[in-house]
Amino acid sequence: MGSVRRGLTAGLLGGALVLAAAACGPSGSPGGAASAAGTTAARPRPTVPAAVVTVEPKNGATDVKPSGALKVTATGGKLTSVKVTGEDGREVPGTLAADGLGWTPAAALAVSAQYRVTARATDPNGLVTTAESAFSTLTPARRTGSYSNLDDGQTYGVGMIVSLRFRKAVQNRAEVERAVVFETSDGTAVKPHWFGDDRVDFRPAEYWKPGTKVTVKYRLKSAELAPGVYGDKDGEEHFTVGRSRVSTADVATHRMTVVENGQTVDTVKFTAGKAGFDSFNGTMVIEEMARKTRMSSNGVSGIRAGDEYDLDDVPHAMRLTDTGTYVHGNSWAIGSMGRSNASHGCIGIADTRYGSDGTDAGRFYNASMIGDVVTVVNSDGPRVSGENGLSGWNVPWTAW
């Protein structure tokens, strides 16, 4: 029996070997090897980039508008670098889209200038496409003038508002807003507000912080203010914000409280506008200062017979509105100081005929600067308009 078992076992093992060989036969045959090779071999690597880079304006273009014309886009891949240089070799800053499909310049290009563009994009296989373009911008046939209320390098009070005015109406306000940039040492944000089509004012949400340094950058020569009409001003203006000085004139008490850097430093008696010439209520800003100035009722509406005036040497004059409201020295109504209203709308402070540094008006004038704040309360007059002088603080920030 033992020998028989051995024979059967050998037979079974042999059978198993045959079956195993039969099972492996097809994959090991020449046909099977060719089939396997056909399913696992790597596909040929592409040699032509799939990315396409488009540069606008096209190579050789002339009379290109400095704003909105330059664009670089990619399809079939993503932009990896965009370099735009002017004829002076300086690189034009720009912004690459988060998806890598587009690039635009950060600001308007210069007019009457030549530019060269080199852009590269990479497709999903790592292949690079390069595109180049050279073009020139237009030379404006018409320009319009502009001017601001700043003197470069000066120090102004915390209420200073920068006012930019144009000699012709502006139709493209957004162009101006892009062309005027504020840089502040403490990060204070500044916003524009338009008073009509020829004036835009700039201010922060609250009074400036003392010590803030401000740089205003203008690129108006490249700004199309109206169809075919460009600005005339490029460059920078700088100013520093001085100490805080805010005065509140209470017409009910005829006293003006002067607060400097958060501390009350003076209380000044004054006379305000009499009935029919009531002083404006609201916040105003000293926009001009003169040790002597002429004041006349010519052109002032509402002047009655007997109320006319023409004074050629009013001392210590600090202008608050474009319509003629001042804080100034007054020697002809001394008896009204701190008691009653006797002016034609101004805030009058005791002074001598030709002005003296030792008077209330002299001391107030010598301690003041352009940009200082003067707020009038409890007058029977209307609230001052935001466009009258530098009175934009009366416009709520939400409406600015």
If you had to describe this structure to a student in words, what would you say it looks like?
The chain is mainly beta and 400 residues long. The protein folds into three domains: 52-136, Immunoglobulin-like; 142-241, Immunoglobulin-like, CATH 2.60.40; 245-296 and 307-392, L,D-transpeptidase catalytic domain-like (Beta Barrel). Helices cover 13% and strands 37% of the residues. It has helices at 2-28, 30-40, 173-179, 360-366, and strands at 52-56, 71-75, 78-86, 94-96, 102-105, 114-122, 128-136, 142-143, 146-148, 154-156, 162-166, 180-184, 191-194, 199-203, 213-219, 224-226, 229-230, 234-241, 245-250, 255-260, 263-269, 282-285, 288-296, 310-319, 326-330, 347-350, 373-377. It has a five-stranded mixed beta sheet, with no helix packed on it. Strands 1-2-5-4 form a four-stranded antiparallel beta sheet, with no helix packed on it. A four-stranded antiparallel beta sheet has the order 9-11-14-13, with no helix packed on it. Strand 20 and strand 21 (263-269) form a beta hairpin. Residues 1-37 have low confidence and may be disordered.
